[in-house]
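Re-run requested by the PI after the first attempt was lost when the workstation crashed. Everything re-entered from the original request form. Ligand of interest: flavin-adenine dinucleotide.
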Amino acid sequence: MSMPTTPSANGAAPVPQSAVDSERDVYDVTIIGCGPTGQFAAFYAGLRGARTQIIDSLEEPGGALTAIYPEKYIYDVIGFPKVLAKDFVAQCDIQARRGEPTIRLNEEVLELAAVEDGLIRLTTSRGERWSRSVVVCAGVGAFEPKRLTVPGVRELEGRGVHYFAKRVEDFRGKDVVIVGGGDSAVDWAVTLEPVARHVTLIHRSKFRAHEATVDELEASSVDLRFPGCEVTAVHAGDDGRLAAIAFKDGEGAEHDVACQELIVAIGFVADLGPLKTWGFELQKNQIVVDKITMGTSIPGVFAAGDIAAYPAKFKLIATGAAEAVTAVNHAVTFYDPKARLDAGHSTNIMEKRDKSVAVSPVPVPAD
Ligand SMILES: Cc1cc2nc3c(=O)[nH]c(=O)nc-3n(C[C@H](O)[C@H](O)[C@H](O)COP(=O)(O)OP(=O)(O)OC[C@H]3O[C@@H](n4cnc5c(N)ncnc54)[C@H](O)[C@@H]3O)c2cc1C
């Protein structure tokens, strides 16, 4: 007997009934993307009493602010005359957590399909997630680390070659090579210098990291190979793990460096990737939405922030926050048609729920 199926609202392959019947942990609102828009949407969904999960392929919250410009000042977000992107993200994180969302980092959403009982199934790099509504806050797509393209490097990923380094202790007593010249590369070099046996930093131009960290780097024992230096090969040892790298200097001379660990921090690329195939109406890599509701062409799925397209759109943090409010309010009335569209002011809602609302002090640097 063939397995019964349910149609997919976005025209994708039908969903097998067995998947629908299996045990599911259903959320009211799922937010795809933990950039500033997704973070604010998570807070707001919590404010509306929604059981919320937020999913991001990156290992840290903050979207573009964390991946591209953590050390840059922002001047045009409400309430902060001048704030470093990473400090702003930290405050957004505190605010998002007031909504008590389940935060799933390091997890990419690969597929989205609506199933017959009003639920939406998300297939991710870690399994299946279920939701009554979805708010897509995916910016310009999932950020992926830029990869080295030298021969043999793919095979050594996880065996000495890292794109996301996490635990300092993994590098204790090792010979470490770091590639890159931005904040991430320079931060790792300075952090590992007192822990590793030897740290070499290879970069092809000048360092773009925060001035104070570059000063720290230059005063350290890190072996600096720049400008004009590029990795040309990686070599495995008999145990199948990384044993050495080769690099070319500015004059074209080749050098070998014995190392057990290689951290590649040469930036990120964004790609709409799987999202393109979910059935949305797209316009220049953005999802077309109804400006009144932020609804997409898939029922129950809304979009906000840089990913959302409508006439006279501004791609700014401030506008993303406003769109998140609209999207969440309409998501709530989608899965609960009796709910009010406008929940009123946050003070009334929060104080009713929690008499002791703690407001954390916000560090605003002086000029
Ligand atoms: C250099 C630079 C400077 C800027 N300066 C300013 C400024 O001064 N002021 C201002 O207002 N704006 C500024 N912007 C714009 C601002 O950064 C964006 O408007 C803002 O980041 C949009 O937030 P977002 O949450 O919509 O998207 P993003 O910040 O791009 O976050 C999207 C998140 O979604 C995740 N994601 C995407 N697809 C998936 C998937 N399939 N599965 C899981 N996760 C996924 C991504 O990994 C990412 O973390 C600047 C942008 C740049 C590049």
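Saved to the shared folder this time. The longest helix spans residues 317-335.
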